[in-house]
């Protein structure tokens, strides 16, 4: 055992480790001079240490850095603690009460010989630490839905609790995004519009834009029919189109205050960059914590069996039904592990003909999956084109149902695709002959790609329709001004409709499917059909994919509809209470449960994928598609991103040179190389930490072998003693 691994042992067992340390350090003087072998030198751990010690001795003799036998573990630990008494609290050390009291006496003795300034600093640091601890305890009581989530954790375990914690995280994230957009974009406009401050709007006439490009006929909001307000509320048209909810409302170039001019176009771009960067950093920060837990939990198959049997129980469970469910979940996990082991053995025993057959079958089934995805994407494409071509009809030419069907046709097709494709994927995966764990991961991956790609298909279809220039008006303005006079607002309306329709579907499924299903299964259990149907399962992956789908819509639509994060916040709050009621009264947990650490990392990984997919259409729309000349704060710019070079041009010449240098290839190449070196360093550091984990596991294994060896020797000694007495 190496010196680093020996120092990494837990400090709570000084006697055991001091013995090993002293024995290992005495090997240089006694072990290799063939002394009489005693009983303890026959231990498996001692022999393993001796083998490793030979290499350490040869290396240390060359460098001249041999340790002295008098360096005991207890003296090293005491010296380390006494040196760090100023910076760390005694409670952080894994020692018994008597040792902590002795160290506290040492600390109080040292305090007497310090100056008044040092004593004041130490007392103030302790007081500050106590204040921070009390503040953290107080903030825990201010957490949103703290009691509800703890109740769910107590009744249903940590797996389902992690879903509701993830939902709370999305509520807070959207609330912060809304505050960023409100402070940078909406607040200056409201202060000026309602004459709260002495300010005015700055309107610069468009230069070089044709008069046809500046025409923006906003649809009338008159109440011709009683359902007009309902249609406008569900689709974002009519009286909602010219409100602060959508992009077209902010048709101004700035806000003039007494001492400065507030650049609204620049603030609009910065708010978008800020909420995307904040979302990325927040998700990565939370993902790293889950990744650390998963890295530590990486284990061999034998250790996996032992952990499930001896440490797999969730002690947060207090409900009898959930306890039975946890028992069945552990049985399922053990069966799944045994099934994976059987499949590994089956793979190892496969012949070349069987391997070719199974890979050919998988290739064919993956072609079917791609065909299903392509069919769904083409259906969304055709539905979007049909909806965009017919949505310009007058309301009085269509009845209420036809109008809503035309407006929500893309959303309906996307919802049907998200409902049908998981069923098809679940049927296909059974014929691909994968392990149970890989089946779940691959099915979830396909569903994630399907749900998130449908949004991108919708956005890119709208983009192709906006930029399709087949007449003079398109060539003049750079986009299809006849159908899309303010295309940003119309894209925002599509995102708004997706958000509202997703909420309607969740409420409808809960009210008209889950509750009647619960009623029929409970009170009509004598019917065999209802018994086979059973209660609705609370499937954690499906519910997570649903809210990640809604969050991706929010990220894409927040640029085109600045108040969409507020709508998303209200939506997720409603979903929290709806899902809580559904869980408590209509659903049963899925037998395939998730651990909290694995669940959190999986949720955030899917959310990170959704963020990356949301950035792609936003980047293209801001840098490639010409901005509308009839609405919005970018009427005097060819594209949205042109406001950034314009801002840089106002900098001093030295600062401009610095910015151009940072964005040039001469800076990018060395920066990329440095990033690669840093990445390689952290990869090597992770490998070193992994080796330390392996050494610690080897030590645990050696301890178990020592115990078996000592029990065997003790049994033999008792048997010899009985034989002598007889």
From TrEMBL:
Mind listing the UniProt keywords for this protein, alphabetically?
Membrane, Transmembrane, Transmembrane helix
Which locations, inside or outside the cell, does it occupy?
Membrane
InterPro entries for the chain: TMC (IPR038900), TMC_dom (IPR012496)
Q: Which domain of life is it from?
A: Eukaryota
Q: Which Pfam families match?
A: TMC (PF07810)
Q: How does it sit in the membrane?
A: Multi-pass membrane protein
The protein's GO terms of the molecular function aspect are: ion channel inhibitor activity; mechanosensitive monoatomic ion channel activity
- Answer whether the UniProt record assigns the keyword Hydrolase to this protein: no
Leader sequence segment = none
Task: Please give a single GO biological process term from the UniProt record.
Answer: sensory perception of mechanical stimulus
User: Is Transport one of the keywords?
Assistant: no
Q: Which family does it belong to?
A: Belongs to the TMC family.
Q: What is this protein called?
A: Transmembrane channel-like protein
- Species source reads Balaenoptera musculus (Blue whale)
Q: Which gene encodes it?
A: TMC7
């Amino acid at each position: 055992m190496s010196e680093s691994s020996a120092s990494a042992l837990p400090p709570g067992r000084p006697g055991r480790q001091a013995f090993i340390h002293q024995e290992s350090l005495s090997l240089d003087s006694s072990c290799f001079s063939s002394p009489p072998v005693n009983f303890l030198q026959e231990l498996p751990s001692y022999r393993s240490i001796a083998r490793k010690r030979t290499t350490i001795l040869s290396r240390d003799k060359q460098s001249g850095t041999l340790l002295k036998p008098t360096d005991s573990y207890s003296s090293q630990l005491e010296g380390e603690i006494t040196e760090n008494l100023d910076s760390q609290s005694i409670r952080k050390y894994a020692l018994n009460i008597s040792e902590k009291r002795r160290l506290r006496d040492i600390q109080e003795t040292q305090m007497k010989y310090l100056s008044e300034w040092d004593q004041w600093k130490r007392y103030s640091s302790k007081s500050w630490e106590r204040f921070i601890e009390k503040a953290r305890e107080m903030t825990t009581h201010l957490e949103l839905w703290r009691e509800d989530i703890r109740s769910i954790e107590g009744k249903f375990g940590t797996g389902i609790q992690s879903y509701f914690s993830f939902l709370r995280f999305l509520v807070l994230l959207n609330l912060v995004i809304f505050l960023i957009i409100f402070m940078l974009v909406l607040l200056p406009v409201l202060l000026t519009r309602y004459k709260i401050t002495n300010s005015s709007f700055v309107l610069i006439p468009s230069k070089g834009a044709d008069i046809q490009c500046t025409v923006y006929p906003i649809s009338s909001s008159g109440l011709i029919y009683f359902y007009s307000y309902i249609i406008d509320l569900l689709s974002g048209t009519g009286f909602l189109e010219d409100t602060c909810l959508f992009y077209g409302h902010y048709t101004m170039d700035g806000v003039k205050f007494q001492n400065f001019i507030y650049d609204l176009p620049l603030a609009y771009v910065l708010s978008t960059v800020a909420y995307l960067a904040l979302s990325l950093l927040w998700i990565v920060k939370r993902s790293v914590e889950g990744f650390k837990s998963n890295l530590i939990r990486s284990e061999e198959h034998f250790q996996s069996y032992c952990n499930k049997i001896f440490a797999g129980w969730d002690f947060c469970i207090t409900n009898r039904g959930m306890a039975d469910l946890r028992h069945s979940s552990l049985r399922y996990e053990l069966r799944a592990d045994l099934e994976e082991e059987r499949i590994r053995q089956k793979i190892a025993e496969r012949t070349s003909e069987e391997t070719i057959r199974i890979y050919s079958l998988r290739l064919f089934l993956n072609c079917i999956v791609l065909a299903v995805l392509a069919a769904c994407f083409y259906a969304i494409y055709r539905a979007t084109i049909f909806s965009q071509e017919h949505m310009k009809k007058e309301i009085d030419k269509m009845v209420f149902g036809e109008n809503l069907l035309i407006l929500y046709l893309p959303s309906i097709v996307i919802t049907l695709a998200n409902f049908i494709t998981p069923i098809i994927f679940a049927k296909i995966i059974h014929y691909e002959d994968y392990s149970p764990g890989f089946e779940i991961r691959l099915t979830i991956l396909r569903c994630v790609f399907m749900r998130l790609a449908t949004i991108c298909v919708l956005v890119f279809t709208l983009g192709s329709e906006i930029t399709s220039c087949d007449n003079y008006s398109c060539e003049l303005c750079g986009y299809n001004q006849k159908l899309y006079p303010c295309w940003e607002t119309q894209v925002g309306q599509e995102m708004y409709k997706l958000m509202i329709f997703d909420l309607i579907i969740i409420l409808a499924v809960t009210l008209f499917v889950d509750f009647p299903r619960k009623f029929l299964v409970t009170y009509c259990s004598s019917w065999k059909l209802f018994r086979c149907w059973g209660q609705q399962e609370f499937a954690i992956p499906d519910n997570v994919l649903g809210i990640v789908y809604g969050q991706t819509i929010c990220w894409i639509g927040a640029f085109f509809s600045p108040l969409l994060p507020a709508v998303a916040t209200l939506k997720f709050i409603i979903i929290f209470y709806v899902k809580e009621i559904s869980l408590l009264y209509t659903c049963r947990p899925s037998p395939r449960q998730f651990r909290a650490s694995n669940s959190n990392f999986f949720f955030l990984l899917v959310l990170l994928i959704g963020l990356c997919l949301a950035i792609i259409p936003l980047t293209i729309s801001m840098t490639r598609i010409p901005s509308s000349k009839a609405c919005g704060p970018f009427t005097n710019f060819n594209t949205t991103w042109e406001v950034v070079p314009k801002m840089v041009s106002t900098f001093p010449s030295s600062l401009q040179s610095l910015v151009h240098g940072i964005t040039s290839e001469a800076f990018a190449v060395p920066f990329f190389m440095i990033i690669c070196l840093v990445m390689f360093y952290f990869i090597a550091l992770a490998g070193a930490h992994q080796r330390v984990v392996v050494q610690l596991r080897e030590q645990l294994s050696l301890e178990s072998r020592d115990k078996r060896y000592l029990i065997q020797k003790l049994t033999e000694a008792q048997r010899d003693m009985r034989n002598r007495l007889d």
